[in-house]
Amino acid sequence: MLVSGFPPAHAAVTGVPAWDWVPAASPGTDARLLDVAKVGGTVWAVGNARPDPLVVRWNGTAFVRMAIPALASRNDVLEGVDGSGSGDVWAVGHADRLDVVGSLSRAYHWNGTNWQLVPTPNSGGSGTINDLLAVTVISSNDAWAVGRVADFSTSHALTLHWNGASWRRVSNPCGHVLNGVAALSATNVWAVGGNTLCRWNGSRWTAQTAPQIPGRLMDLQDVDGLPGALWAVGLEAAPCGEGLCSSGIVLRRTSSGWVREVEGFGLRGISVVSSTEAWAVGSWAFGPLLLHRDSTGWRPAPTPDTPGVGGLEAVDARGSGADWAVGKQFASGASETLALIAPSPRSGAVEGQSSSNAAVTWVGPESGSIDADQFGHFQVGGLTAGSYTFIAARQGCEPAVRTLSITAGTTEAVTLLPACP
């Protein structure tokens, strides 16, 4: 629910949908969701409930688990999901050996009735890593899955193409690994990983190096876009004392190439809504991170309370209906699935401005408190809809008091400035 301590805003998030968490199937003691997609009026999310693959579907109230074949004596992980319609959905991932290093690529197809395993090419011996990490579906006979093939000494980006009958390996110059892929059209497909941005033009893959700051390590995680609007997000690390300090990066493609748009947030997924609007997700010191872009720039959005502390891996805000974000959280020492929806059907959020480090409290259907950051900014998410009294106080000052009506699914703005002599 509570977020503070980030830099001054580029633009207010007032008016954007408010997020809240929803129930999601979390079997066992080590479960996570790694991707989410809205396909043909159905919302799918995939991940892993060690050692089994995890596929869940939204039933209007909660994400419920769906049956899917697993590979015995392997840790079967699903990393990506996408589709072209209600009877054409793909989930991809890898089945890891439990004893030593080595994995087999996995691709499952939903035909409208059940999930079926479809053969994929695998390279090397039993100790070779064959991982599929993302998928994008253009049509029933045109899809791409990306990942890596690696052994003890080498690692190469993997690109597989579905032609309607089988998955075939396509050569590429795309570096060591590809973590994300998005198709703007059949002849304009982008994939990212490491510091590499790769493009399929309908006949071949070509690679570009991402703009970097010397001394920093980059690992791009995801890419998404529409014709004329393309973004990529990922992680960065820079020397910090005797070790490395982690951060993140947002890249935007312009007419002159890729540019660094904003940095500092560790991001793993992105969904582009329009030429000016997008959502990106990840994690930071406060837990799950929701980052929203409008025509003026990027800014963190209020995050709801969750049962545990964790992070977000993927987001889908495209198309009609609700927006979705998924990931994992740690509660009672175990990893559990995490799923968020916007606009929330039951709660709202507040974007506030007060004095530097003011103590902000609220009373209403629920109560709580938070300290504004050094710029006087604070956010509260996941507030049950209803009437609230907000109070901002600083020592030696007259408190500021304001009554707010919180509406489910919306973000309200409030200014609370204590009167100081």
Question: Care to describe what's here?
Answer:
With 421 residues, the chain is an all-beta fold. The protein folds into 2 domains: 19-342, 7 Propeller (Methylamine Dehydrogenase, Chain H); 350-415, Immunoglobulin-like, CATH 2.60.40. The protein is built from no helices and 36 strands. It has strands at residues 2-3, 20-21, 31-39, 42-49, 52-58, 63-65, 74-85, 88-97, 103-110, 115-118, 129-139, 142-150, 155-162, 167-169, 180-185, 188-193, 196-200, 205-209, 217-226, 229-240, 243-254, 257-263, 266-272, 278-284, 287-294, 297-300, 309-316, 323-331, 334-342, 347-353, 359-363, 368-371, 377-384, 386-393, 400-406, 411-415. Strands 1-33-30-36 form a 4-stranded mixed sheet, with no helix packed on it. Strands 2-29-28-27 form a 4-stranded antiparallel sheet, with no helix packed on it. It has a 4-stranded antiparallel sheet with strand order 3-4-5-6, with no helix packed on it. A hairpin with a 2-residue loop joins strand 16 and strand 17 (196-200). The protein is globular, with a radius of gyration of 22 Å. The two termini are 32 Å apart.
Sequence stretches where pLDDT stays below 50 over 5 or more residues: 1-11
What CATH calls the topology of the largest domain is: Methylamine Dehydrogenase, Chain H
The CATH H-level homologous superfamily of the largest domain: YVTN repeat-like/Quinoprotein amine dehydrogenase
Helix/strand class: mainly beta
Proportion in helices: under 10%
N- and C-termini, Cα separation = 32 Å
Number of domains: 2
Number of helices: 0
* Secondary structure: number of strands: 36
Net shape: globular
Radius of gyration: 22 Å
Strand content: over 45%
CATH architecture of the largest domain: 7 Propeller
Largest sheet: 4 strands, mixed
CATH class of the largest domain: Mainly Beta
User: What is the typical, i.e. mean, pLDDT?
Assistant: 93
Which strand order do you get reading across the main beta sheet? 1-33-30-36
